[in-house]
Amino acid sequence: MTMTHYMELLAVNQPWNLLIFMAIPVILAETVAISELYLLYTRDYDGPVRRLNRWAGITVGVYFTGVFVHLMQTAVVPLTASGGWRGPADVLAVGFYLAGIVPLGGIALLDLGLIGRGRGEHGRMAIHAALVGLFLIVAHIAMIFGMLDPTLLTGAAAAGGHTMH
Question: Is 148 left (phi over 0), alpha (psi -120 to 50) or beta?
Answer without folding.
Answer: beta
